[in-house]
Amino acid sequence: MLTRGEVSALIQRFPKVEDTLLSLQYAPKMPKGMVQETKAAIALARKFNNEVARPLALKLDRKTHEDPDYLPWELVETANRWGFYTRWIPRMLGGWGLNMPSMSYFTEELASVCLGITNVIGVHYLGIAGITACGNLKVAKRVLSEVVEGEKTGTPCIVSLSITEPSAGTDVEETDLMDKGTVTCHAERVKGGYVFNGRKIFISMGHVSTWTVVFGYTDLKRPSETAVAAVVKTGSPGFSFGSHENKMGQRVCPASELIFEDCFVPDNLILMDAEKARKYTGKPIREVTQRYTDYVVSATRAGVGAMGAGAARGAFEHAMQYASETFISGKPLIHYEWVQCLLAEMYKNAMLARLTYIEANYANSLRGMYKILQLKPFYYYYKHVPQAYNDKVLSPLTEKDWMTSLMIRTNLDWQFQSDQNCTSGWASLAKFSGTDLGMKNCQLALELMGQTGLRQERWVEKMLRDIKLCQIYEGTNQLNRVNLFKCLIGPAHPQVRVFDEQG
Ligand SMILES: Cc1cc2nc3c(=O)[nH]c(=O)nc-3n(C[C@H](O)[C@H](O)[C@H](O)COP(=O)(O)OP(=O)(O)OC[C@H]3O[C@@H](n4cnc5c(N)ncnc54)[C@H](O)[C@@H]3O)c2cc1C
Q1: Within a domain: 352
Q2: Which residues is 400 bridged to in the sheet?
Q3: Is the CB of 479 under 6 A from ligand 1?
Q4: Which of 35, 176, 186, 337 fits a 20 to 30 Å CA distance from 386?
Q5: 139: how many CB neighbours lie within 10 A of its CB?
Q6: Whole-number percent of the chain with pLDDT over 70
C-alpha cells in the first residue's frame, strides 16, 4: 500500500517536455545524408509495392488457404533479387549499409499493402539483430557473408530468430520473467561446444531460413543466469523442422516449429554464453542477456510499430476509396459529416502510429543500437569509402579477436541504464501504439464498408487478420505496456514493483 505522499509524488513525476524531445536532441547530430538515403528507400518500397506486392498479396493469401503447407520460396527469391536481405547489413560486414531508421519507413510503406510480405522481408532483420546486437563480429561475419553471397548468386540466405518455446512465450522475451516460466530448450556444455535439445515454435520464416539464432539454457531452472545464444545452420545434424502453423493472418510468412535433438553447436558458432559475458564484459550473463535482448527488441519493436502504422494507413486508404466511390441516397458517402469524422479519426490514428515509431528510432539513434553507426565520421566514412577497399582492408579486421572484444564491450558494457530504459521504453510505446492503432483503423474501415469490407478482394479483412498477429509477436501488447511502465515510469518510483505477480 502506498502512502499518501508516495501517491502524490507518483502523480507529480510525469517527465518534463524538454526531457522527452528525442527528435530535437538528435536533429543536430544526424548526418544529413540519411535524409536522401531514406527517401530512396521509401521510393524503392513503393516501386516494389506496385510491381510485386500489390499484384501478389491477395493471390498468395488465397494460395495459403488452398495449400496450408505453401512456402514462399519464389517471393523470397524476388526479394533477394531486389537486394532487400542485405540493404540494412552494415558495409563493414559486406551489406549495402543503409541507415537503420530508413528500414522503418520502408517497412511502413510495404505494410500499407501487405503485412505478410513485409514480414517475409522484415523478420530476416530480427535474426540479423539477434546476431549483431551482441557484438560477436566473428560469428556475424561468418553468417552475414553467406547472406551477401546469397544475393550475388541468386540463392537467398535468410536468418531467423528462435526464442519462443511451447510453454514459454512472453517469459523468454523478458529476463525478469524467464526464471518464473517453463523453458525446455537445454544447452549442455561439452568439449568444443554445446549440445542443444528442445523445441522452438512460431518461428517466423523458420522453414525458409538458412541460419537460425537459437537460445538455450544450461540450467532449465535458472535460465536467466545460464542463457546460451548460438547460430545453427539448416541441415546441421540434430536440427530439423516440424510443422508450420495454419494461422489466422500473415499466412504467406510461415511460423515454424524447430526441433533440436542432440544438436552439437561448435564454439565458433556461439554468440554469447556465461563464459563470454564474463570474459568480455566482466558482468554476469543475466545482466548481459537483458542488455542483449533490449538491444534487439528496441530496434525490432520500433519496426513492428512501423508495421502497425502501415496497416493504419492502408486501412485509411481503402476507407477513403470506398467513401469516395459509394453513393447513399444519391450522395457520395464522403459528403456525410459522420464519415468525414470517421476518416479524420483514422487519419489521426495513422499519423500517431507513425510519430511513435519515428520517435523510437530517434531514441535508438541517440542512445541505442544505431548510435555508433550513425556518428557522422563513421557514417560518412562508410558511405564514401569504396567497397573494394572496405572488403580488403576493413573486413578482415572483423575476424580479429580484439575487434570482437571491442564490439561486445561497446554493445553490452557501455550503455547506461538510463539509455537502456529510454530505448526499450520508447520501442514498447511504438510497438503497442502502432499495432493497436493499426487494428483500430482496420475495425473502423470495416464499420464504414459494411458487407463489402468482409470480401477478401477488398483487402481490409486480410489486413485485420494480419495486424492481429502484430499485437501478439515481439512481446504481447500487454507485456509491452508493462515494459513501458518498467522503463519510463518505474525508475522514478522504486517503491513500485514491476514484473512481480505477487506485487
Ligand atoms: C505470427 C507469429 C510469429 C512469431 N515469430 C516469432 C519468431 O520469429 N521468433 C520467436 O522466437 N517467436 C516468435 N513468435 C512468438 C511470439 O514472440 C510470442 O507469441 C509472444 O512472445 C507471446 O507469447 P505467447 O504467445 O506464448 O503468449 P503467452 O506468453 O502465453 O501469453 C498469454 C497471455 O498472458 C499474458 N501474459 C503472459 N505473461 C504475463 C505476465 N508476466 N504479466 C502479465 N501478462 C502476461 C500475455 O500478455 C497474453 O495475454 C511469433 C508469434 C506469432 C504469433
Answers
A1: yes
A2: none
A3: yes
A4: 35
A5: 23
A6: 97
Cβ–ligand 1 contact at 170 (below 6 Å): yes
CATH value at residue 430: 1.20.140.10
HEC states along 431-443?
A: HHHHHHHHHHHHH
**Does ligand 1 lie within 6 Å of residue 246's CB atom?**
no
Residue 488 lies in domain: 18-157+287-492
The predicted-structure confidence for 108-141, as pLDDT tens digits, reads as follows 999 999 999 999 999 999 999 999 998 899 999 9
480 lines ligand 1 (CB under 6 A): no
Of 255, 275, 295, which one is at a domain's C-terminal end? 275
Q: Which atom of ligand 1 is nearest to the CA of 253?
A: 1
CATH number at residue 220: 2.40.110.10
Cross-strand bridge partners of residue 211? 159, 233
- Nearest CA residue ID for atom 45, ligand 1: 479
SS3 content of the chain, % helix, strand, coil (to 5): 65, 10, 25
- How far is it, in rounded angstroms, from Cα 280 to Cα 285? 11
For 191-240, write each residue's pLDDT tens digit: 999 999 999 999 999 999 999 999 999 999 999 999 999 999 999 999 99
Q: Ligand 1 centre from 169 Cα, in Å?
A: 4
Name the phi and psi angles at 159, rounded to 5.
-115, 135
Q: From the CA of 478, how far away is ligand 1's center (Å)? A: 10
pTM passes above 0.90: yes
Q: Are 250 and 469 in contact (CB under 8 A)?
A: yes
Give residues with Cβ within 8 angstroms of 289, minimum separation 6. 175, 224, 227, 272, 277
| 295 & 442 share domain | yes
CB 203 within 8 A of CB 255: yes
Separation of CA 260 and ligand 1 centre (Å): 21
CB-hemisphere CA count at 13 Å for 19?
8
- Written as nine digits, the cell of 436 is 493497436
**473: Cβ below 6 Å to ligand 1?**
yes
CA distance 179 to 302: 26
Interval between CA 242 and ligand 1 midpoint (Å): 19
Question: Within 10 Å of residue 274's Cβ, how many Cβ atoms?
Answer: 18
Is the CB of residue 135 below 6 angstroms from any atom belonging to ligand 1? no
Q: How many domains does the chain have?
A: 2
- 206 and 234 inside one domain: yes
- Cβ neighbours, 10 Å, residue 302: 33
Best of 173, 201, 202, 501 to mutate for ligand 1, by most ligand atoms within 8 A of CB?
202
Distance CA 225, CA 277 (A): 11
Task: Report how far residue 230's alpha carbon sits from residue 424's, in angstroms, rounded to the nearest whole number.
Answer: 23
The tens digit of pLDDT for each residue in 404-428 reads: 888 888 877 777 889 999 999 999 9
Last residue of a domain, one of 218, 249, 275: 275
Pocket flag, ligand 1, residue 201 (CB < 6 Å) = no
